[in-house]
Amino acid sequence: QVQLVESGGGLVQAGGSLRLSCTASGSIFSLNDMRWYRQAPEKQRELVASVTTGGSTVYADSVKGRFTISRDNAKNTVYLQMNSLKSEDTAVYYCHAPMVILTSRATISTWGRGTQVTVSP
Fold first, then answer.
1. How many other CB atoms are there within 10 angstroms of residue 119's CB atom?
2. Cβ distance 8 to 20 under 8 Å?
3. What is the pLDDT confidence band of residue 82, given thresholds at 50, 70 and 90?
4. What angle do CA 114, 21, 70 make, to 5 degrees?
5. Over the stretch 93-112, which tens digit does the pLDDT of each residue have?
6. Burial of 75 by CB count in 10 Å (0-12 exposed, 13-18 middle, 19+ buried)?
7. Start-to-end C-alpha separation, the chain
8. What is d(CA 79, CA 20) in angstroms, rounded to the nearest whole number?
9. Between β-strands 28-31 and 91-101, what pairing exists: parallel, antiparallel or unpaired?
10. What is the pLDDT confidence band of residue 117, given thresholds at 50, 70 and 90?
11. SS in 3 state form for 45-112?
């Protein structure tokens, strides 16, 4: 079994910061791109940030300059540092990673269960 588990969500005042973590576990051969998505109520899920194994990053325009995605390959963990949070950042944040299974070398697109981020005005 492989899985992704997010943590670090919570309630924060506008202008504050949170750091989300997502850790992959199981019989994993490798992790490819790791991504953070978010979904606000009655809105579709959107890509927030992505980081490759080599550290290249991509950000949604709405979070550029405020959020930073990073990864620790040794820990199979991706982070999302969120600064200068706005009320519109309120959403459930999901981690996604295509994980290559150790035994079969099959790639499994895996989602975490999500962590709630609420930014109060």
1. 20
2. yes
3. very high
4. 120
5. 999 999 888 889 999 899 99
6. exposed
7. 40
8. 5
9. antiparallel
10. very high
11. CEEEEEECCCCCEEECHHHCCCEEEEEEHHHCEEEEEECCCCHHHCEEEEEEEEEEECCCCCEEEEEC
